[in-house]
Amino acid sequence: MSNYAYKGKDFEISRAQAVQALASRIKISPDLNPILLKPLGDYRSSIFLRGKFYKKMHADDYYRKFVQKTGMTTVLRSFHILEKNHDLIIIEGAGSPAEINLTRYDIANMKLAEKTKSPVILITDIERGGSFGSIVGTLSLLEKKYQRMIKGFVFNKFRGDLNILKPGFRKLKQNTGKPVFGTIPLTKFLLPEEDSITSDSKQLALNSKNLKKIDSEIEKLSKVVKSSLNIRAIEKLL
């Protein structure tokens, strides 16, 4: 869900997925964001399927009538198109995978991972606090089959001395049997944000004039992420 969209030739997708395409050095295409919800207020959104406007829909209709049939079919169609053309697909979830009131309708997280036989890494935003409890709580609320699909954790947006976290990592491994793949430090960069909650007036606009600057910011961020994660351990999941 995002009000920030990228408009290509005859299609419209979330701006975040367009930036991810630039980072992946691939063509921006509607299959990178098969379902886009643009919020209108009062629990209604404009729905775009594979870059094309579909209809305006109330949240109740979206969950009860759309996601399990048209929604999942659309997403899997895009996945299989990408699968034919790329060696690796990274599927970004949305929100928490353990919203137990919406489990049967949640096609953005564990259901899609199950359909595509994808190993899952659970990422927590430690800047907001409560990350250890959030991880353990999330796991405990998931069905056993989904718990088994989660292979480890990443802590994002950390500031401070990493040694402070290490006892927690050991306890987390004892309690869950799953490793921490790394801790990404809070990093300031000028890439366009996904939504207005974290918007900054200094961020670069996504346009042809800024492509070199955006590429430079992507390179900066990628170096931070690469140096912060156990890439070899993650590669072994594939």
TrEMBL record:
What are the UniProt keywords, alphabetically?
Glutamine amidotransferase, Ligase
Q: Which InterPro entries match?
A: P-loop_NTPase
The GO molecular function terms of this record are: adenosylcobyric acid synthase (glutamine-hydrolyzing) activity
Instruction: List the protein's name.
Output: Cobyrinic acid ac-diamide synthase (CobQ, cbiP)
Which BP terms from GO are recorded?
Answer: cobalamin biosynthetic process
> Has keyword Nucleotide-binding?
no
* EC number, UniProt record: 6.3.5.10
Q: Give coiled-coil spans as residue ranges.
A: none
A family per Pfam: AAA_26
